[in-house]
């Protein structure tokens, strides 16, 4: 979408970009963030899909582990020059970058992003090349903090060992000198220090000749001379030679490092570009999170804003709803001074521009923005003193250029249309301009104080009136956008409220035509009635919400009572079951003894059996009533235990499985784990899929059940496998420990009967051996 750069600053787009910059890790990304411009309409839908995927990845699989992200552009310039060598600092940047990129590759592979986020994978993740072979070589050269290791070459190892020996000898000599009482009496302090790279002793100036050596430096007062003893000087000279040899060897190592890296420069550039793009994309998602942003639908002919807010004001801003259909493409907004008209225009400009820049914006789901190819915004003072142009003339010059691009896919946002000149001429120009844009199918939203434009909004065909509401009782703006009505400017009323003399107020009212006074009074009366209706409507909504809340409480209480009834019935049944069994055992024992003694009365025994059977039937009647098994079909809204809400895609009666979409994931579950939703779940837009479950913690590919009892371990395993399947893992590791093997046996029995387990095996020695079970899950 084309937006004149001169207008971007007028609605504070650059301030938004300054908020984006600190969220970027790499300096190259920060530069791109500052230069970010809206995308072309044909490229926008795919880009927004990628933003949605990254938002879901961060939400459900964790944030991308960027960490330190060095700028490789200077490095890549060196690699383009044959024979050029990287400096140590540049080589360290390469090493840190390779560590970061390999960490990101591992993160993406572990979470199976290629299948779960295909668009983002094809545009960004596949650009991240595998440098594991070169990284193994680099790890032999550099430590984790980027320093060249002693083991980088045998020669470097020998040089550094010799340096340590020489440094030790220097310290020994200095300690020996400091222990000599004949010398310490000439020192300011019994210690040694470094001056100009030489080891020296602080000698009192008056005893210059008492210590044989070279004067390296002196104190600012001249009272102390820093003398290098002769015995140390020779060793220090040797140390300097070794340092020179060390620098030469490090330089040679870096040259070799550079030459091995040079063939990989193309892959390095591709990876760098991919990660910079991913860094910027992540910054957009993170900025959108600050104001709980959403990604609106794009396309169509209707501009639809639901609960829109100015991004820089966010929660301080009053949300607004606005729908501009294709057949009523002109919106005229009126309202009092200070009522928020300019803020509304800026908010609209930012919501559209940020959407085209790929940044989630503060509005509600159900919003949609057409694929505009041109945006014109006219806000504020355009006075051009250098070219001797007044504000009005400057606005007309900008408007002339913009009108050449006006068309069905253009959006014009103009604040204070017709201002800056004679009100009658300004209104005439404004009406003519709106008619011109209407004929070309251009969507145009303007604000005004001019009565003629307010009247045009009420009577014009294809024009939608709107206003920023004004509280007639407090004479204060409410900043609420009301579509379908007009509002006066109430300039005289506001002037009276702030305390202008009554003589001035009355004089102003006398100057106004009676028709204008009556019209303003009518608008004020309508505002009062509208506010009263709104208050009553709000009260009605509150009562309905309270009734709904009470109904939910009653239903919850009813469910709780039913559950308590079932619990008591279950407890009573279990208690009587135990008692009845004990009585049956006791009676069987007594009957056996009586039969042995041939003293059993068969008639009495028959009566006793009848009583026991009656008790048994009574006990059976206490059994909890079973619910009829539910039948499911494609399209049913269900609750999947324990994953959350979903939609049935297909039912396999032969296998006894149901395929359910939970958010963007598909899982196969037994029908017993499903229940139909009593309330209808609102249909989400296919372009903005929302996952209805919540991951309370990040899922990894391993779970530990060591030291758990068998029942506890089974509960943990069942819950973990459900979440692992949902997270997209194909291989997971169950750590049960070796011990006596009981937990391993319980785990294997559980896995054999699990419907989503394809196979499992004991861990290899490097994986943990018999203390680990490796499980392959069905995809």
From TrEMBL:
Domain of life: Bacteria
Record GO terms (molecular function): ATP binding; ATP hydrolysis activity; ATP-dependent DNA damage sensor activity; endonuclease activity; mismatched DNA binding; ribosomal large subunit binding; rRNA binding
Coiled-coil ranges per UniProt: 523-628
Keyword vocabulary terms for this entry: ATP-binding, Coiled coil, DNA-binding, Endonuclease, Hydrolase, Nuclease, Nucleotide-binding, RNA-binding, rRNA-binding
Domain Smr: 706-778
GO terms (BP aspect): mismatch repair; negative regulation of DNA recombination; rescue of stalled ribosome
Residues the record lists as binding ATP: 335-342
Matching Pfam families: MSSS, MutS_V, Smr
Enzyme Commission number, as recorded: 3.1.-.-, 3.6.4.-
Entry similarity comment: Belongs to the DNA mismatch repair MutS family. MutS2 subfamily.
PANTHER family noted in UniProt: OS10G0509000 PROTEIN, OS10G0509000 PROTEIN-RELATED
Subunit structure: Homodimer. Binds to stalled ribosomes, contacting rRNA.
Described function: Endonuclease that is involved in the suppression of homologous recombination and thus may have a key role in the control of bacterial genetic diversity. Acts as a ribosome collision sensor, splitting the ribosome into its 2 subunits. Detects stalled/collided 70S ribosomes which it binds and splits by an ATP-hydrolysis driven conformational change. Acts upstream of the ribosome quality control system (RQC), a ribosome-associated complex that mediates the extraction of incompletely synthesized nascent chains from stalled ribosomes and their subsequent degradation. Probably generates substrates for RQC.
Listed name of the protein: Endonuclease MutS2
Organism: Candidatus Caldatribacterium californiense
């Amino acid at each position: 979408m084309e937006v004149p750069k001169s207008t971007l600053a007028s609605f504070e787009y650059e301030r938004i970009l300054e908020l984006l910059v600190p969220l970027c890790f790499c300096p190259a990304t920060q530069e791109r963030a500052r230069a970010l411009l809206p995308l072309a309409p044909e490229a926008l839908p795919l880009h927004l899909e990628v933003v949605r995927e990254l938002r879901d990845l961060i939400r459900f699989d964790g944030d991308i582990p960027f960490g330190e992200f060095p700028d490789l552009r200077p490095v890549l310039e060196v690699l383009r020059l044959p024979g050029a060598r990287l400096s140590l600092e540049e080589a360290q940047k390469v090493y840190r970058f390779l560590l970061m990129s390999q960490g990101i590759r591992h993160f993406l592979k572990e979470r199976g992003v290629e299948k779960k986020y295909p668009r983002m994978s094809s545009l960004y993740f596949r650009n991240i090349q595998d440098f594991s072979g070169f990284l193994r070589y680099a790890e032999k050269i550099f430590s984790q903090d980027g320093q060249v290791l002693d083991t980088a070459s045998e020669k470097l190892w020998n040089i550094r060992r010799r340096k340590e020996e020489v440094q030790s000898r220097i310290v020994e000599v200095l300690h020996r000198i400091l222990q000599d009482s004949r010398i310490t009496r000439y020192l300011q302090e019994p210690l040694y220090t470094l001056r100009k790279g030489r080891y020296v002793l602080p000698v009192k100036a008056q005893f210059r000749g008492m210590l044989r050596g070279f004067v390296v430096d002196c104190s600012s007062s001249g009272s102390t001379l820093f003398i290098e003893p002769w015995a140390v000087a020779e060793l220090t000279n040797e140390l300097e030679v070794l340092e020179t040899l060390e620098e030469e060897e490090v330089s040679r190592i870096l040259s070799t490092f550079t030459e091995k890296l040079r063939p990989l420069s193309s892959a390095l550039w591709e990876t760098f570009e991919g990660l910079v793009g991913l860094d910027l994309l992540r910054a957009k998602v993170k900025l959108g999170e600050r104001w709980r942003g959403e990604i609106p639908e794009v396309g169509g002919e209707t501009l639809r804003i639901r609960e829109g807010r100015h991004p820089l004001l966010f929660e301080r801003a009053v949300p607004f709803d606005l729908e501009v259909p294709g057949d009523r493409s002109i919106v005229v907004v009126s309202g009092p001074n200070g009522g928020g008209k300019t803020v509304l225009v800026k908010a609209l400009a930012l919501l559209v521009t940020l959407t085209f820049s790929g940044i989630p914006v503060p509005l509600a789901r159900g919003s949609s923005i057409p694929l505009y190819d041109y945006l014109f915004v006219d806000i504020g003072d355009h006075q051009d003193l250098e070219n001797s142009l007044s504000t009005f003339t400057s606005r007309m010059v900008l408007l002339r250029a913009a009108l050449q691009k006006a068309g069905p896919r253009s959006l014009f946002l103009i604040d204070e249309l017709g201002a800056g000149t004679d009100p009658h001429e300004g209104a005439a120009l404004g009406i003519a301009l709106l008619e011109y844009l209407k004929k070309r199918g251009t969507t145009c939203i303007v604000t005004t104080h001019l009565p003629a434009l307010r009247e045009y909004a009420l009577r014009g065909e294809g024009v939608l009136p709107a206003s920023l509401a004004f509280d007639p009782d407090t004479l204060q703006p409410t900043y609420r956008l009301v579509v379908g009505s007009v509002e006066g400017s109430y300039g005289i009323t506001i002037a009276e409220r702030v305390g202008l003399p009554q003589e001035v107020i009355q004089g102003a009212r006398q100057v106004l035509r009676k028709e204008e006074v009556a019209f303003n009074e009518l608008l004020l009366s309508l505002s009062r009635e509208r506010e009263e209706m709104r208050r009553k409507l709000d009260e009605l909504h509150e009562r309905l919400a309270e009734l709904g809340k009470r109904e939910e409480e009653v239903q919850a209480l009813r469910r709780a009572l039913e559950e308590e009834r079932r619990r008591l019935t279950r407890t009573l049944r279990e208690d009587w079951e135990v008692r009845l069994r004990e009585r049956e055992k006791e009676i069987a024992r007594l009957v056996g003894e009586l039969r042995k003694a041939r003293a059993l009365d068969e008639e009495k025994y028959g009566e006793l059996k009848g009583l026991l059977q009656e008790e048994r039937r009574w006990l059976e009647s206490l059994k909890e009533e079973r619910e009829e098994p539910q039948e499911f079909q494609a399209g049913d809204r269900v609750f999947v235990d324990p994953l959350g809400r979903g939609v049935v895609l297909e039912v396999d009666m032969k296998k006894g499985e149901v395929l359910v979409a939970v958010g963007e994931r598909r899982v196969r579950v037994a029908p017993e784990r499903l229940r139909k939703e009593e309330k209808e779940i609102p249909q989400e837009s296919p372009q903005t899929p929302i996952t209805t479950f919540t991951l309370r913690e990040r899922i990894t590919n391993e779970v530990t059940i060591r030291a758990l009892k068998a029942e506890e371990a089974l509960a943990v395993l069942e819950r973990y496998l459900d979440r692992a399947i949902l997270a997209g893992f194909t291989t997971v590791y169950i750590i049960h420990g070796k011990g006596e093997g009981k937990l391993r046996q319980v785990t294997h029995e559980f896995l054999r009967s699990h419907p989503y387990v394809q196979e499992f095996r004991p861990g290899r020695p490097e994986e943990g051996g018999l203390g680990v079970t490796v499980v392959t899950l069905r995809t």
